[in-house]
Amino acid sequence: MIPAMNKSSRHHVLDYVAYLFMVLCFPLNPLVLLHVVEPYEIRQLFWPGAVIWLIGMVMVIYPFIYFKRKGGVHKGSAYVHTTKIVTGGLYGIVRHVQYTGGILSIFIATPLLYPHWIFVLLGIPGIWLTYLGTRREDAFLVGKFGEDYRNYMKQVPGINILAGVLRKLKRQN
């Protein structure tokens, strides 16, 4: 069950808890930089972590540009103020590109960049809270776009990249 959302805000208290986990797990990590946590030295994990971080950051930044171009955002408005559902580009693979990028660049990349059990431990609730955020966002967008968004939800997974790629390939064939 998804906790109730304050009607005057799109954000829930759990979103702010998720943001705290994000800060604690971010690759420019305060726990590592302040020497609270000393990660293990596993060099073989660095490059996979760096690649995952880069992919995640592209996904985090992507909506800033793509929504402005394809989302019917009025001039001078923030990218989140779309007037139509965006289903192309990465949005044909996952509905929540930015959330997925955050999961990749923060909760998946950090334990690879800084191997330590604490980042795995913090990442598990961080990913779960981010997922709950996608559920609240879906509810908000159903309220905004109605049945069209429900149909989009049936076509494109929320954050599962592998399922999204497979579905997209199937649709193209």
Detail the topology: elements first, then pairings.
Elements: H1 13-25, H2 30-33, H3 46-70, H4 97-113, H5 117-145, H6 147-155, H7 161-172
Largest sheet: none
Low-pLDDT windows of residues: 1-8
Beta-strand share of residues? under 5%
C-alpha geometry: globular
Oligomer: single chain
Question: Roughly how many Å apart are the termini?
Answer: 36 Å
CATH topology: Four Helix Bundle (Hemerythrin (Met), subunit A)
Helix content: 55-70%
**How many strand segments?**
0
The first-level CATH class name: Mainly Alpha
Put simply, the count of helices is 7
Class from secondary-structure proportions: mainly alpha
Structural description of this entry:
This protein is an all-alpha fold and about 170 residues long. It has a single domain (about 15-170), classed as Up-down Bundle (Four Helix Bundle (Hemerythrin (Met), subunit A)). It contains 7 helices and no strands. Helix 1 packs antiparallel against helix 5 (about 115-145), helix 4 (about 95-115) runs antiparallel to helix 5 and helix 5 crosses helix 6 (about 145-155).
Question: What does this entry show, briefly?
Answer:
With 173 residues, the protein is mostly helical. The protein has helices at residues 13-25, 30-33, 46-70, 97-113, 117-145, 147-155, 161-172. α1 (13-25) packs antiparallel against α5, α3 (46-70) packs antiparallel against α4 and α4 runs antiparallel to α5.
